[in-house]
Amino acid sequence: MKILIIEDETELSDSISKYLTTEQFTCEAAYDYHSKLTLRSNAMISHKAIIFNYKGLDQNTDGMEYRLNLNAAYQFPKELSAELFGNYNSPRVGIQGTNASFLFYTMAIRKQFMNKKMSVGLSATDPFNKYINQNTTIIQAANRQYAIRQVPYRSFGITFSYKFGNLKFDHKEESTKDPEIPAL
Prior knowledge:
The chain is extended and about 70 Å long. The two termini are 46 Å apart. Helix content is 7%, strand content 60%. The strands form three sheets. It has an eight-stranded mixed β-sheet, with helices on one face. It has one helix and 14 strands; from the N terminus they run βαβββββββββββββ. By secondary structure, it is mainly beta. Keywords: Cell outer membrane, Membrane.
């Protein structure tokens, strides 16, 4: 379950987030610290216990897993905006050990034109790292294995958008009567 908390009262928001975290729910919080700055975060925290007994071989493991992310957006003057997003996934607990953790981040900047009808943006994901390094540990009764996996994650992007016309939705009340049933 994912719960979004948007609250001007930071104490109340923090209190709700702490309670939900102890109950192993996903918590998000969004704060406008300044009229031009927005911060959004998300945390998912859980405990995993694996009990495995096969033909007398006990292979039990447990541990905490979590995922954290933070998004910061800032609106500069003259229709210019910037955004920074970071994400961290902790090591995943498995029957034989832990699977890789990883961290990545994305930076973006966007300029709007023509009364916000057109925009051009640039983005970069992990621009300073050629790879995301993922370390894996596998532990068995008579064997230990350590591996590093290098995932090419660096990317750059250009976006262009244009809005044509004005899109309006009119909500019409639908009849609750079934046309197959004659009126009395």
